[in-house]
Amino acid sequence: MHVYLQRCGMGNKGMSAGESVTLTLQQVADLAHAVLRRHGLAEAHVGPVAATIIAGERDECASHGVYRLLNCVHTLNSGKVVPDAVPVVHHVSPALLRVDAAGGFAQLAFATGLPLLVEKARTMGIAAMGINRCVHFAALWPEVEALTDQGLVAFACTPSHAWVAPAGGTSPLFGTNPIAFGWPRPGGDPFVFDFATSAVARGEIELHRRAGKPIPEGWTIDAQGNPTTDAEAGLAGALLTFGGHKGSALSAMVELIAGPLIGDMTSAESLAHDDGAKASPYGGELIIAIDPAGFLGAAAAEHMQRAEALFDGITSQGARLPSQRRFAARRRTPAQGCRIPRALYEELAALS
Ligand SMILES: NC(=O)C1=CN([C@@H]2O[C@H](COP(=O)(O)OP(=O)(O)OC[C@H]3O[C@@H](n4cnc5c(N)ncnc54)[C@H](OP(=O)(O)O)[C@@H]3O)[C@@H](O)[C@H]2O)C=CC1
Ligand SMILES: O=C([O-])C1=[NH+]CCC1
């Protein structure tokens, strides 16, 4: 594989200073497919798992791009994911479905349930899909974008491992518990936000540790409960929630609605199930899809157009929309390629 070498600063989000290589999107795809196949992931899973990793790199989301291949390989090697799991869809009621991921990665389970979720949302106006027994290592925006692509409003959340202390406490209890929301926009990119309910995704702290860089204050506390800017000490202690008690309550909500509400694990239970393997989190995910025509019928287009004033109100004062950075990267990387830290590239190349 021919790759371009260069020195990089802090350009891409999560990208460390130091030597980097530039890969075309095709090279990123080839690398992802090769690594996953080499480590025994069944062919049916390779495409969907690789797609989320390639999309992460394309959108310059370094914490959930090719870096995630290391976690995938580790999870495969530790036997904490079923590499050839066959997801099974269960129709629960007119507005509800479950997908049993059977211990496999979440991506194939999501793709398997998606058509029925869309059909139910269109029929009922709102529908929810619970994915059970899945290994989730990825960003959630590819999933909400799969629904906004169909003209649906989307919400998704999942617990992870107990790495985050509740506001006012010092012991890890919550996962990094991301929440993603998507709103389809006429003739443009959807409005999408997707964030961990911790101050930052754990992957971002791992990238700082790899790069030997300090982390900002307010992300973590060490094992003694003291604030720390040392990535290693923070990972050994606990992450903090974003927005204090507000992020803490949202994180608890994710634990509840994508855990016990759908008969699946909390982040504490996921970590206990992991049993020290340090594999990716295991448990459930909740996805909700809303058809604007459900409430509005033929008036849906008019009201969706009216909603555009909100986005204009944000951007016209110089503020940016969430995902605007990602969408800009998405338009750039097909021509410019993806910059990856050289050390990470070499580690992945060895795994392929
Ligand atoms: N599967 C799992 O268990 C977990 C997955 N994750 C994933 O990690 C990823 C990163 O999470 P996190 O570190 O919290 O995300 P970030 O803090 O990087 O970004 C959160 C959101 O805020 C937007 N944003 C950032 N800066 C601004 C700004 N100045 N103005 C407006 N919007 C802004 C981002 O858009 P943009 O992208 O355009 O910058 C993004 O939509 C997520 O995709 C999440 O799904 C996290 C935890 C657990
Ligand atoms: O960055 C993060 O916090 C995680 N990403 C996938 C599982 C947890």
From TrEMBL:
Domain of life: Bacteria
EC number(s) from the headed UniProt entry: 1.5.1.21
Keywords, ordered alphabetically: Oxidoreductase
Stretch forming the signal peptide: none
Pfam families according to UniProt: Ldh_2
Enzyme class: oxidoreductase
Reactions this protein catalyses: L-pipecolate + NADP(+) = Delta(1)-piperideine-2-carboxylate + NADPH + H(+); L-proline + NADP(+) = 1-pyrroline-2-carboxylate + NADPH + H(+)
GO MF assignments: delta1-piperideine-2-carboxylate reductase activity; pyrroline-2-carboxylate reductase activity
Keyword DNA-binding: no
UniProt cross-references to InterPro entries, sorted A to Z: Mal/L-sulf/L-lact_DH-like_ah (IPR043144), Mal/L-sulf/L-lact_DH-like_NADP (IPR043143), Mal/L-sulfo/L-lacto_DH-like_sf (IPR036111), Malate/L-lactate_DH-like (IPR003767)
GO biological process: proline metabolic process
Family: Belongs to the LDH2/MDH2 oxidoreductase family.
Protein name per the record: Delta(1)-pyrroline-2-carboxylate/Delta(1)-piperideine-2-carboxylate reductase
Species in which this protein is naturally found: Sphingobium yanoikuyae ATCC 51230
Lineage: Bacteria, Pseudomonadati, Pseudomonadota, Alphaproteobacteria, Sphingomonadales
